[in-house]
C-alpha cells in the first residue's frame, strides 16, 4: 500500500492539519431515499440496445416501438428504461422511498411534479424532480415486486485449510452472467458542492467516502442511502467534479468474482462492447470491477464483493490519485485526455459561474498521474 492509500475521518483530518472543505450538513432532509431502482436513457436504436444489454446480462421485460424495459434477477420489475429518440442521451434515474407521505413532501418542493401514476411495469406512483445538473430524478413508491429469477450459484472456494468444493467443479455454461441488481450511478457535475448538497438535503444520502484534491477541495463524493442499522452498499450515487454535467457510468452487481470474469470473456468474444478497464479490485468499496462501453459510448460496470455500511460508518477522506482507484488490475485509463472539445468545455466552465477553477482542474490532472 502506498502512502496515498490512507483514509481519515474529518476529525483526523483536522487534527493532522490537512486542509479540507467539508460539505454542508443536513440533519433533517426532506425524505430518506431507500434505494436506486432504475436508470433512464434515450436511444435511437432500441433493437441494437436490446441486443447489447442482453449480452451484458439483463433480461427484456417489455419492448415496443417507443420503449425498452429490462430487469435484473432481483425483485424489481425493471432496472433500465430506454426511450426512443433521435439522439443518445442519459436522462436520469429513479430512487425509491418507503412511504407515500414522502412523495407528498417532495411534491411540495419548488420545481417538483405532482404525484402521478406510473405506466411502467409494476405500476406505482412517482414525483419527478430535476437535479442541479439538469437530470431527471424520479422518486417512486408502491411499485409491485416480482419473483426473483434463478441465478448461478456462487462458486464454492477451496482455501488452504478449508475445502468447500469436494468432488465438484466450477464450470461456465457460455451464457452471459445474469445481472443481480443495479448497484450505482456515477455522474459528472459542473457545480459539484451544490449538487452534492442538493442530493443530501433532498434525499438524506450519507457520504461514505470523499476523494479530495491537494488543497482539500472535495472532488468525488460516494453516497449511499440512509437505512439506519440495515447495511447498505458503499455507494448508490456518486458525484465527481467535471467541466460539464454528464453521465459517467453505472455499476451492476453480479453474484461473484467468477461472474465478473465470465462476463468479461463473453463480452470480448461475442459482443460489440468495448473494454475500458478491468478486471481489477477497487480500493474504495473493495469491489472486483470490469468496465465496458456500449455502441453509444455509455460506460457500464460489472462488479462483485462490494463493501456495505450501516449508519454508524463515518465519512472517510482520501487524497485524489490514480492509485487510489484500485488495488490491483490494469492501470487506470487516462480520463483527462486533451481534446478540442474538452478544451472548449474547460474554458466555458472556468469562465462561467461554476464551482470549478482552472487551478483545481490542474490539480485533478496531476492527481491522476500519481
Fold and architecture overview:
The protein has 370 residues and is α+β, with helices and mostly antiparallel strands. The chain has a single domain, classed as 2,3-Dihydroxybiphenyl 1,2-Dioxygenase, domain 1. The protein contains 7 helices and 19 strands. The protein has helices at residues 10-15, 46-56, 100-107, 192-203, 257-270, 340-351, 358-367; strands spanning 35-43, 59-63, 67-71, 80-84, 89-96, 116-117, 125-130, 136-141, 181-189, 206-212, 218-224, 232-233, 237-241, 246-253, 274-281, 288-293, 299-304, 308-309, 316-319. Strands 15-16-17-14-9-13-11-10-19 form a 9-stranded mixed β-sheet, covered by helices on one side. An 8-stranded mixed β-sheet has the order 2-3-4-1-5-8-7-6, covered by helices on one side. A two-stranded antiparallel sheet has the order 12-18. A hairpin with an 8-residue loop joins strand 3 and strand 4 (80-84). The radius of gyration is 21 Å and the shape is globular.
Amino acid at each position: 500500500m502506498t502512502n496515498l492509500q490512507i483514509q481519515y475521518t474529518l476529525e483526523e483530518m483536522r487534527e493532522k492539519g490537512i486542509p479540507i472543505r467539508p460539505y454542508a450538513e443536513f440533519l433533517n432532509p426532506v425524505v430518506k431515499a431507500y434505494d436506486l431502482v432504475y436508470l433512464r436513457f434515450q436511444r435511437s436504436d432500441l433493437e441494437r440496445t436490446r441486443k447489447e444489454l442482453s449480452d451484458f446480462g439483463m433480461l427484456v421485460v417489455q419492448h415496443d416501438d417507443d420503449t425498452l424495459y429490462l430487469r435484473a434477477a432481483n425483485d424489481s420489475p425493471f432496472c433500465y428504461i430506454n426511450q426512443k429518440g433521435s439522439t443518445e442521451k442519459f436522462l436520469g434515474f429513479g430512487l425509491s422511498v418507503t412511504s407515500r407521505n414522502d412523495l407528498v413532501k417532495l411534491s411540495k418542493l419548488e420545481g417538483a411534479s405532482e404525484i402521478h401514476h406510473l405506466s411502467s411495469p409494476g405500476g406505482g406512483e412517482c414525483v419527478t424532480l430535476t437535479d442541479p445538473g439538469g437530470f431527471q430524478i424520479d422518486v417512486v413508491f408502491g411499485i409491485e415486486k416480482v419473483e426473483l429469477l434463478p441465478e448461478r450459484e456462487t462458486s464454492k472456494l477451496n482455501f488452504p485449510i478449508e475445502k468447500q468444493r469436494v468432488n465438484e467443479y466450477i464450470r461456465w455454461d457460455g451464457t452471459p452472467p445474469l445481472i443481480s441488481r443495479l448497484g450505482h450511478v456515477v455522474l459528472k457535475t459542473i457545480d459539484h458542492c451544490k449538487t452534492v448538497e442538493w442530493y443530501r438535503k433532498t434525499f438524506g444520502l450519507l457520504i461514505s467516502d470523499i476523494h479530495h484534491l491537494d488543497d482539500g477541495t472535495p472532488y468525488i463524493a460516494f453516497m449511499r442511502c440512509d437505512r439506519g442499522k440495515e447495511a447498505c452498499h458503499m455507494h448508490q450515487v456518486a458525484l465527481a467534479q467535471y467541466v460539464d454535467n454528464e453521465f459517467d457510468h453505472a455499476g451492476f452487481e453480479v453474484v461473484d468474482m467468477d461472474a465478473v470474469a465470465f462476463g468479461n470473456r463473453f463480452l470480448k468474444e461475442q459482443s460489440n462492447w468495448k473494454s475500458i478497464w478491468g478486471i481489477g479490485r477497487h480500493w474504495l468499496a473493495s469491489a472486483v470491477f470490469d468496465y465496458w462501453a456500449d455502441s453509444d459510448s455509455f460506460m457500464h460496470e460489472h462488479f462483485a464483493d462490494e463493501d456495505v455500511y450501516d449508519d454508524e460508518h463515518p465519512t472517510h477522506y482520501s487524497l485524489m490519485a490514480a492509485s487510489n482507484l484500485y488495488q490491483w488490475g490494469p492501470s487506470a485509463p487516462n480520463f483527462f485526455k486533451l481534446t478540442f472539445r474538452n478544451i472548449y468545455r474547460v474554458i466555458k466552465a472556468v469562465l462561467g459561474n461554476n464551482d470549478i477553477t482552472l487551478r483545481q482542474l490542474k490539480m485533478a490532472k496531476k492527481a491522476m498521474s500519481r
